Structures are given as structure tokens and as C-alpha cells.
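Box S1 | Example of a co-folding query
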Amino acid sequence: MFLAFLVSPAAAQNPGAEEANGGRLWQLGGCFGCHGNLADGAGDGANTAGPSLRQSRLDREGLIETISCGRVGTLMPYNLAGAYTEVACHGLPLGEPPATVTRGGSFTEEQIGTLADFLVEHVVGQSRITRENCGAFFNGNADAPLCRQY
Ligand code: HEC
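Box S1 (continued) | Returned holo structure for heme C
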């Protein structure tokens, strides 16, 4: 993809660059820290505070809502910049987020859409991890160290 090479120096210095793809956003958001490197929860023996997203039944809208607003009273954080304060979540009036939900990433709606598309395409409903599927988490690089075992 030609456009991928048109990264300005400013964007290159900013780890939250708008150009980030879904796999990169997965890293930036720290999602792997709870859901496992490849979103398979306990499956890959990584940190497992969160469930496997491969078994999720959420559709794109459900994914966007969960990622944007988090789940109150659980470890699932909100990741939309301005969630609760500027964008209503869970039907609550605008204001400080409830004390029982924490902040994760700080993404735009567009980035969360990219992340949801990534999950729909490579994760949800896909319990079998192939080398190629693994590579999707690393910008399409199926030779990434973590993928060599598949
Ligand atoms: C601190 C741990 C933690 C982090 C970081 C985290 N999650 Fe979660 N996530 C959870 C937990 C725990 C749940 C289950 C919440 C519940 O009980 O409903 C969850 C639930 C979800 C669900 C709903 C799954 C379903 O089928 O109901 C999605 C989607 C999700 N997380 C995506 C993400 C994404 C994308 C990121 C990164 C931007 C992320 N999570 C970061 C802990 C985390």
C-alpha cells in the first residue's frame, strides 16, 4: 500500500499516529495485556485478565460500544477520548466516568472503528490461529517471532 509510506515525521514520532492499523492499535491500547497477544485469552498463556475475544459474539456495533465505553465494574477500560465526559456512555448523563471503570487507550472514533474492523476480520469467531492470522497482529508480518510457532 503506497499510502502507508507517506508518514510525516510528526506522525512517526507520535505513537498514536492516525495511520495506525488495527494490529498496531491493539498494541497501543494495551489490549494484549489482558486479552492475550493474539486476543485468545488464556489460549496463549499471556496475561489473562480478560476473556478470549475469539469467542465473543459481539457484532461491530457491540465491539465499538464495549471498546469505547468499557464495562463498568469490570477490568475492561474505556478507550474513546472523551468517553463519559463528551460522549455519552451506557445512557449516563455527561460527566466524570463512574469510579468503577478505568481508562485504557485514548482513541478517536475512527481508530476505534479500525480496531473493531480488525477484530471482526481476524478475531471474532476465529478460534484457530494460523500463521497468517497471527501475522495480522504484526502488520501482516507472518514471520514475526510470535507467529513462528503456528
Ligand atoms: C485491564 C484489562 C483489560 C484491558 C487492558 C482490555 N480489556 Fe477488554 N475486557 C477485559 C475484561 C475483564 C472483559 C470482560 C468484561 C465483562 O466481564 O463483561 C473485557 C471485555 C472485552 C470485550 C467484550 C467481549 C465480549 O464478548 O463481551 C471486548 C470486545 C474487549 N474487551 C476488547 C478490548 C480491546 C480492543 C482492548 C484494547 C483497546 C481491551 N479490551 C483492553 C479486560 C481488559
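Residues 29-31, 33-35, 49-51, 53, 56, 58, 63, 66-67, 71, 74-77, 79, 104-105, 115 surround heme C (CB under 6 Å). Residues 1-17 have pLDDT under 50 and may be disordered.
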